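Hi L., both proteins are below.
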Amino acid sequence: MTRDTTLHGIILMLAFCVIAPLLDVSAKLAAENGVPVGQITAARFVVQTALMIPVVLWMGLSIRLSGKALAYTTLRALFLLVSTFAFVSGIEVMPIADALAIVFVEPFILLILGNLIFGDHVGPRRIAACAVGFCGALLVIQPSLAAFGLVALWPLATAVLFAFYMLVTRAISAWMHPVTMQFHTSWTGLLLCLPVMILAEGSAIPSLDPIMPQGWNWLWLFGVGFWAAVSHMCMTYALKFAPSATLAPLHYSEIVTAVALGYLIFGDFPNSMTWAGIAVIVSSGLYIIHRERLAARAKAQAAPATEALTATP
């Protein structure tokens, strides 16, 4: 990576951190105005699919899918769909920053799952950091449970589901273009949503029974898909221009945007215990990123020596 392209990646990652919370704001505004959570979730995939079609055509990317690719993409879409539903269910009543802080335990969950599923080595220091990070999440969850009840656990479900989403992404990223992956995830997610919405119509299930949007709700529903598409395109290209190890720490700056927007639009501001939890989660996450860098560096340094030994007659 050259310095210039790395700088481009950093700028795009910061753009993601500014734009992504606008998705959450749009979803919360729609939910507060009576739009069911399931309909908000479906809107993300409807709009994102419509926006990704011209992008894929303009880039001239192949959209052919093998049976294996379709299966993985559908699984990826399912995890994204349910994690989105869980997060919107949480921010329907919780402050966005509180919910996002809880979701930030996802790297810890991903680290543990990577060890269990892929056999990734996880040393005692990173395990300890995961434990500390979960304690930070409890600091955020505890007052939220007292204020909002069990709905405060929805963001934790989002973290778990999004970790599985990232594992599937890891499995297919080596042989599928990221833009194509996003496009196929969008339309398969839409196909998964539509039967549920059709069956739920008239069911009187508050979170699923769709309504006819009125007034500003059309804009909020469009915003959910629009900001999702734009922010994830920023992240996709950020990872193209800069190493993930460089970009990962920047992801935590998303909490700054979430706090600012939550305060300006909804009048929400984290209390002292939530701030303490955020600090613990971010510190633990940054430590894990640091350890990942050291492990990657050690592996890269060991590789030439291993090759030399293998080549020795």
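That was the first. Here is the second:
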Amino acid sequence: MKPVSRFAKPAALDKIMSRGWRALEEEALDGWLARYSGGVTKRANSVLPLLSPADTFLAFEAIEERYARRGLPAIFQISPDAKPVDLDRMLAERGYAKDSPTVVQYLALGEPGPGASSEIDPRIHFADEPSQQWLETWWSVEGPHESAGQTLSQSILARTSSSYVSLVADGRIEAVARLARVGPLGGIYAVATREESRSRGHGRAIVQAVLIEAAARGLDGVWLQVVESNAVARKLYESLGFETISRYHYRVEPLSGS
């Protein structure tokens, strides 16, 4: 990937995004990066196909064996930069199911969108580590809900220097978000509002706070990933100036015998 200058729109973010939600274990396999994290999130348990392997079919066998050894299905993250260029077709022919189409959006800082604000909501709190209440708020919305998965997810968060943002009302955290800092860029993750507290503008307030924090940290721009079908979230982000610059989806290995 070419260096990203201030206000530029990066052409691809696959490798940088992988560092924003970094797997607990990573293994390079002939141009592909295999990521393992006990099955907690596809992002941290999938193959990032950065380069074409010398023999794609041998690479498939190696990947499937390694994920099976860990009790996981092999999953590939497929973006326009996946290698080889016909990897998506090859996986489909191998029976891998398409899953979770996602758009990647980006905002260059210093060029605030029409809905952006430079004033910090007094209910907003920042921290360099997630508090227990921050974690519980996030888990209550997004999961995981079992203790083993929560321990793994907390370990994933700790792999990248980040800012943890909370919106507190009446002594309780109502919404959260995380800003992962990777070089000159930041990634927005874990945006969640308690179900009973939605439709009150908390989502907009928490994302605006993340953007203010990113600017204060001197970051050039911020990316985020949002499921393509989540029209409400996409509308919010676009109103803040985010633009779609890439897409990806997963290909998931079929279950044995299916």
